[in-house]
Amino acid sequence: MYKITTLSSGLEVITAPIAGTKTATVLFMAATGSRFESAGQSGISHFLEHLFFKGTSRRPSTLAISSELDRVGGEYNAFTGKEYTGYYVKASAGNLEHCLDVLSDMLLHSTFAAEEIEREKGVVAEELNMYLDNPLYYIEDLFESCLYGDTPAGRDTIGTRESIANFSRAAVQNYFNSQYDSSQAVICLAGKVGESSAKAAEKYFRDFSKKNYINKSATNDEQARPKVNLYFKKTDQAHLSLGVRALPYAHADEAAVKLLAMVLGGSMSSRLFTELRERRGLAYYVRTHDEPYTDSGYLTTQAGVPVDKLRQAVKIILGEYGKLKNKLVGAEELSRVKRSLIGRTTLQLELSDAAANWYGRQAILLKEQKSQEKILTPEKYFARIMKVTAADIRRAAGKIFVNNNLNLAVIGPYRDKAELEKMLSL
Q1: Which domains are present in the chain?
Q2: Per residue in 306-326, pLDDT tens?
């Protein structure tokens, strides 16, 4: 069972013990990401994430930071999303306080040296090039751009070449001083942790303070007609993401949409994996997933298909979407996808870093929603999944699988949007 402790600074600490493990993870999550940026700031959340690893007053370089974590065999990294940014260190449980020391130093005492900022612009620009060159990475950004357009929700998290090149030390410091607010952040300690772990967090994070936090703007989740977003690239394979606007985080039908995605493309026994790959031989990878944000959401199917088979693949995917609106999922299939989802989640949550993310992500999203809902333990989440009926899934499908919600993003040698838009009908 998890426990929440509020530090003197107002920062919340979640302790989530895991029986039998020898590791511990400290995860810091801030309720900020690319959705909190103006057009001129595009990518600054991600850029700041990089800079926290570049040196502090006590540890003046990347090497000084990484060496201290490497010498205890720690795994460490960070991630930036649309609605949150996270930093974590995982190590043997006896080194948890050392990990808290290093991570708190990074987050409280980074120097943001001007020369490091200039150097890191080149690194992030190459990261952007990597994404643009890899359709498996870029197709999701292209899909979200199709959904949300030129808004914070639709812009790439990494930013643009122009915005990255224009970041200044003052801009970085101003963003940090605004968005890394103790009331809009959380620390999760998972694994072999207990009451002493929370006390250690107080020792190292007591100086984390409240800031002049600026919330994100609301997303326009209305759509009048189907949309297509093309990224022309001479490829041997067409990469597509075909999906719909769905439901926000913590919606009453969120679990039904999750299972809907599982039925469509959540495993090798799913409908679209079977139809597109096993029966038709059209794709190597096929997957369907849902993404619930705090005030919007979507469900999409991604696949890589032969360039001349794109239209056939689109027709098959739309056909499976339509079936779920009109026919109940069978009892055996529903039972299978529920067991699959619960089984996979159980396996993941044996790891302390996955458990930290489980609790931390919920806490941050509920903060952003200003919700009084409680964080779900895995057991309560599984109980919610088991309660979903075939009728619930059909009702959810009826809500989201409508023509006006359809969006198609494609990477490949195509320029004719109008021809593809004509296909988007359920």
Answers
A1: 3-205 (3.30.830.10), 227-421 (3.30.830.10)
A2: 999 999 999 999 999 999 999
